[in-house]
Design a protein that fits this description.
It is a single chain. The protein is 51% helix and 0% strand. It is mostly helical and 108 residues long. It has helices at 12-21, 27-35, 44-55, 61-71, 83-95. α3 packs across α4 (61-71).
Length: 108
């Protein structure tokens, strides 16, 4: 089975990062929380830095962005998006089965 042929559309690398994140994961929740518009929003570079701090592994912003897109996480959110865009984002995340309800205002 190739690296891209698995359930959920995740790659071996994505699954490895989820494991390395431990209590801070899984990767899809880690990314979704940090891209939620508002005070918890981070750029792709900032997310990469947080991943490196927690895992010791370095990844490019482009790679992290591709992971987010594979999970169905919007790639174009901004810190100061309005309430409707934030609601749309949260609904889309929930539709993908990523539960960030308890983490919407804080990051772990």
């Amino acid at each position: 089975m190739s690296d891209r042929q698995n359930s959920g559309g995740t790659t071996r690398e994505m699954r490895m990062v989820s494991q390395l994140l431990g209590k801070h994961g899984p990767l899809e929740r880690f990314l979704a929380v940090r891209r939620t518009p508002g005070d918890t929003w981070l750029s792709w570079e900032q997310i990469g830095y947080e991943i490196q701090e927690r895992t010791g592994e370095s990844f490019t912003r482009e790679g992290i962005h591709r992971w987010a897109l594979r999970f169905g996480i919007f790639g174009n959110t901004r810190k100061h998006d309005g309430p409707q865009l934030t609601t749309d984002y949260l609904n889309a995340i929930a539709a993908k089965g990523i539960d960030i309800s308890a983490l919407a205002t804080t990051r772990n």
